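Researcher: Re-running this chain for the archive, since the previous output was lost when a drive failed. Same request as before.
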Amino acid sequence: MHKIVNPQQTRLFDQFDSVLTEKTRKRLLDGWPGVFRHVILELMPVDALSEHFDPAMGRPTKELYSIAGLLLIQEFMDWTKDEALDAYSFNMNVHYALNLEPVTHDISKRTLERYINLFEEDDLAKATMDEITTTLVEVLSIKIDKQRLDSTHIFSDMASFGRTRLMGVAIKRFLTQVIRHNKEDYNLLEESFRNRYAPGVNQLFADTKKDGESRRLLRQQVAEDMHYLVKLFGDNPEYNGKDTYKAMDRIFYEQCEVHEEAVIVKKKTGGNVMQNPSDPDATYDGHKGPGYQAQISETCNPDNEQQFITVAIAQTAAESDANAVEEVLEDLQANDLVPDEMLVDTGYTSDDNVQFA
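Model: Regenerated structure tokens:
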């Protein structure tokens, strides 16, 4: 059963009267909690969230406006999940911003994670941010006629691997799943093969000499091992649908080629390749490294007291800035935020982009 308390609904007795003085209430109203409670909170996508719960049957949910608002504040403050839970339970700023009574509120990490998953599954974060942006632009009379567009690199929270270790870790992860699924299949592999990938991830290939030739031979051996596993289990439905096999298969064909049964490690792969099986969507930028990037357009009219981000589009690190202009302008147009003038660096200024703008 979903529980929804409209933040615009007034109460006969304000629960904060007994805990706030006139000065402290003014500080809340003038700070971000006041803006959040009286402008942003009502924009939370509670209708979409409520569709996941029966309107009358079952245990009541947490109040949906407050939960959706908590997820936004968590990102705004860059809190961990535990920090967000503590704030929801004990922080008066958050209680005021989320229209909660100024008492302790109990919430579990599992509940928080469930709502995060609902936001991701329904793609609610972007829709929410679009609505908040357009609302604040109107309320604060932000001038959008002049904007600047640039990309910023985002590092993934993953280990950075060289090519040999990347292939070795992919093999190790797949073999670990083979052991769990059917140890007999694992025992059919040659003992030397099994021993090569028996150490932990951080100890893989630790006994290999550091000279260039030894490292080249190791990379070739690992590539051939990967090719052997891809062929051995490629037609086996018990394994070829697993994420660890798919990652191994993808990494092999991104890093290697096969010519007349000979495995050849590519000299160069480009940036659009997997960097770590733990984060398969992350790619590589030759100047900035592995991870992602975001295309961000921001107002830059000097008359604005504050400048606003009007669009943020997530991409992999290998994407070219030149390919972003059309998507950015279409996003701005959809929210009625298209500027008269867009400042960019030369990476964006192809003839097609100029014509499209």
